[in-house]
Design goal:
By secondary structure, the protein is an alpha/beta fold. The chain has two domains: about 1-335, Rossmann fold (3-Layer(aba) Sandwich); about 340-430, ANL, C-terminal domain (GMP Synthetase, Chain A, domain 3, 2-Layer Sandwich). About 30% of the residues lie in helices and about 25% in strands. The strands form five sheets. It has an eight-stranded mixed beta sheet. A four-stranded antiparallel beta sheet has the order 10-11-12-14, with no helix packed on it. Strands 19-18-17-20 form a four-stranded mixed beta sheet, covered by helices on one side. Strand 5, helix 8 and strand 6 (about 215) form a beta-alpha-beta unit. Bound molecules: zinc ion. The site of zinc ion has 6 residues, from loops.
């Protein structure tokens, strides 16, 4: 098959050439940082002279940047901390994070930073085969979330038609998708499944709709095989994963090779994989936390930023021909999300895969109780038909036994009683004793 690229020349560069490109961008960034108080201080404390940074390796002495550090910086020096490189008048875009794990982070972009966003989204769309003939529906709330706005701006950037689905009920969104002939859906994986569930109840046929591509982020779901399969079956489309964060950008994208790995956009970022406990780099191909340096957002950059996302770098080349590295199974979970159940290390994405493999389960919730240093799992499930609960419960218990050699508790939830999510789903709840 013919693979699509956003910038084929850059995406297929020899590794040495790519490193030179990154280092050139890094040197330009370091010059700008002279006026960034936060990083000027951080570099000074690490004994690094910005002008001496010629290659990425020269930054290795710089301590990582953490989200807590950024939040604390904005708390101490409201509203933006000392994180801005330029005078406020140079910035054109304000966004903030949802603040689900603490205070929202406020993030500003200049026009040049925004163009980086557009290139990143251009890579997401083109690698999924989206062209100027496509109509892209953004099924989200907008508000101050940068990913929602950049998803639409990115679609326009590659010449596609962008349909913003903000301020609509789910039913209105479904009608718009069907009536307008949208060919691409952008949403969280959970919300794509919720729309499919609702379409089923309303007798709407999504499989015969014009939607041929679905693109997801916000949760690891689209790279979880059982979730991906479910979305593809419900929509009659190919499902693509990607990853991003407000303070970083849209840093990874799926490609048409559909190999189960997603590419890191090394044209715009530098990546490292570290052991989340020790902070040391992991061995080639080993699992670890992803650390990112933004090369193209000089207005509010992050250097050696700990994303908290666990990844495992693929070592074999991708059939699409890109030399940009790729991570197997997308985001495997959050470094701080690992569950320890009776001595077994479990990531939520692995649990999701098992649960989503049972088509009878419509929605679910997992309660985690820590007892004597071990996590106990209680899973509440909603089934398509209430009378199928017992059978589904048995299948789920067997699946947990077979996959993880684990006993879990499975309880029944009344139809429609569990929350449905439009933004990041929160199906895992920790109950403290
Ligand atoms: Zn590829």
């Amino acid at each position: 098959m013919e693979f699509h690229f956003y910038n084929r020349a850059v995406e297929t560069l020899e590794r040495e050439e790519l490193r030179r490109l990154q280092d050139g961008k890094l040197r330009a960034l370091m010059q700008e940082l002279e006026t960034n108080r936060f990083y000027r201080e951080k570099l000074r404390r690490a004994g690094i002279d910005g002008e001496q940074v010629r290659r990425y390796e020269d930054l290795r002495a710089l301590p990582y940047t953490t989200k807590n550090e950024l939040v604390e910086e904005q708390r101490l020096h409201p509203p933006y901390g000392n994180l801005l490189t330029y005078h406020l008048s140079r910035y054109c875009y304000f966004h903030q994070t949802s603040g689900t794990t603490g205070s929202p982070l406020k993030w500003l972009d200049t026009e040049e930073d925004w163009e980086t966003w557009l290139r990143c989204w251009g890579a997401v769309y083109r690698a999924a085969g989206v062209t100027e003939d496509d109509m892209v529906f953004g099924a989200f709330s907008f508000g101050p979330y940068v990913s929602h706005w950049t998803a639409m701006a990115g679609a326009r950037h590659i010449g596609a038609l962008a349909l913003p689905g903000g301020g609509m009920s789910s039913e209105q969104r479904l009608r718009t998708i069907l009536d307008s002939g949208c060919t691409v859906l952008v949403s969280t994986p959970t919300y794509a499944l919720y729309l499919a569930e609702m379409a089923g109840q309303r007798g709407m046929d999504l499989r015969s709709s014009a939607v041929r591509i679905t693109i997801h982020a916000g949760e690891p779901g689209a790279s979880v095989p059982a979730v991906k399969r479910r979305i593809e079956e419900a929509w009659g489309a190919t499902c693509y994963d990607h990853a991003g964060a407000t303070e970083v950008g849209a840093w990874a994208f799926d490609c048409e090779a559909q190999s189960g790995a997603i590419h890191l956009n090394e044209a715009e970022f530098v990546f490292e994989v570290i052991d989340p406990q020790t902070g040391e780099p992991v061995a080639e191909g080993a699992r670890g936390e992803l650390v990112v340096t933004t090369l193209g957002r000089a207005g509010m950059p992050v250097l050696r930023y700990r994303t908290g996302d666990l990844v495992e770098m693929a070592t074999e080349p991708c059939p699409c021909g890109r030399t940009l590295r790729h991570v197997k199974g997308g985001l495997l979970g959050r470094a701080d999300d690992m569950l320890i159940v009776r001595g077994v290390n479990l990531y939520p994405s692995a649990v999701d895969h098992v649960i989503r493999s049972l088509p009878e389960i419509v929605e679910y919730e997992v309660e985690i109780r820590r007892v004597n240093g071990s996590d106990d799992l209680r899973i509440r499930i909603e089934t398509v038909e209430e009378q199928h609960f017992e059978r589904t419960r048995r299948l789920l218990l067997e699946a947990f036994q077979a996959q993880f050699n684990l006993r879990v508790q499975v309880e029944k939830a009344a139809p429609g009683s569990l929350p449905r999510y439009e933004l990041k789903a929160r199906r895992y709840r920790r109950i403290s004793e």
